[in-house]
Amino acid sequence: MHVIVDFTIVPIGVGVSLSGYVAACERILAESGLTCQLHANGTNVEGEWEAVFAAIRRCHETLHAMGVPRIHTDVKLGTRTDRAQTMADKLASIGKKLETNG
Amino acid sequence: MHVIVDFTIVPIGVGVSLSGYVAACERILAESGLTCQLHANGTNVEGEWEAVFAAIRRCHETLHAMGVPRIHTDVKLGTRTDRAQTMADKLASIGKKLETNG
Amino acid sequence: MHVIVDFTIVPIGVGVSLSGYVAACERILAESGLTCQLHANGTNVEGEWEAVFAAIRRCHETLHAMGVPRIHTDVKLGTRTDRAQTMADKLASIGKKLETNG
Amino acid sequence: MHVIVDFTIVPIGVGVSLSGYVAACERILAESGLTCQLHANGTNVEGEWEAVFAAIRRCHETLHAMGVPRIHTDVKLGTRTDRAQTMADKLASIGKKLETNG
């Protein structure tokens, strides 16, 4: 099952500077081979269900191994059976609507 | 890895009445043997990472098989390594604070 | 506009024990007169849009005043125009489906 | 209070094609004068608390006026008092960590 995910990880108990932990997760996602796109409030990830959730689990394991005692994560996920759709398709659909109905 | 999850599933493309789909997911979660607690905006689920995400995946598969063409799901998840904690523990901690600092 | 919200506040930079901060927010929500229900991963709140978001803002202001330097909050919110619906209605609908299609 | 938000709106009861509704919200956000960045699973918005939530409310009102009977929205929001931070700052911090610890 193909899934498009938005993933935000919030390390708790390691102070206010979180970018080093987010960068560690970016490397894990990049190594996973999944299509990823970082944005200001999380990372969009696209791929097969098992691969996506294995990567998210690896992020939790890695951050705990780096000394993060507690983690809060938000995942938004979308699946559809009516047609195949990528993250690029989603952005293209909205872009087309913005042009034509402007 | 033990995980506490809040899970909200939003079937898209099947009208505005969603309770039948939510009830189908409640049955899947109940059959999974995981500790679950339905609330007005989702369901709290607690257990081992793989079992929890397998149950969520089963909800997606089941709703698609029921004819839902598109699904949006929100998952909030917490893991911690400093101590074991259940959903009941979380509620008890807050309850204790409400009593003593009232 | 009537809104049903699920609200989860995550104080960052104050260690791993968060229940005191969650309890402070519970008191703010209780004083607001809004219908509220605490659960293991957040609080469900129901009321008029302005009152609900004013209460959430008050939670942020209060936690910052308590010394929390950074806050991450998740809000899920639902509005509908086809009919009036309360949080109790939502739970009752699912309950009825669980009984009849069991 | 300055807030950085990630906003995802899910119209319910109008079929599976949602891009026209998302485009309508993009126009509202653009007209609001707030700093916005669309991504594959939502839109990042930055500004003063009242202006940001007024824009989100306007999105709900507009979509209901377009005939959407039910809406589910996810908002992730961050505030901090230790220092001023923009969405561009967040991305720059992560980028710097990715370069130096690569």
Keywords:
homotetramer, alpha+beta, 102 residues
Order of helices and strands of chain A: EHEEHEH
Major beta sheet summary of chain A = 4 strands, antiparallel
What Rg of chain A, in angstroms, do the CA atoms define?
15 Å
Uncertain stretches of chain A? none
Assembly form of the protein: homotetramer
**What do the pLDDT scores of chain A average to?**
96
Class from helix and strand fractions of chain A: alpha+beta
Q: Largest chain-chain contact?
A: A-D, 35 and 35 residues
Q: How many strands appear in the DSSP assignment of chain A?
A: 4
- Describe the strand arrangement of the main beta sheet of chain A, using strand numbers: 2-3-1-4
Strand content range of chain A: 25-35%
The number of distinct helices of chain A, counting runs of at least 4 residues, comes to: 3
Helix content of chain A: 40-55%
Distance between the termini of chain A: 35 Å
Based on CA inertia axes, which overall geometry of chain A fits? elongated
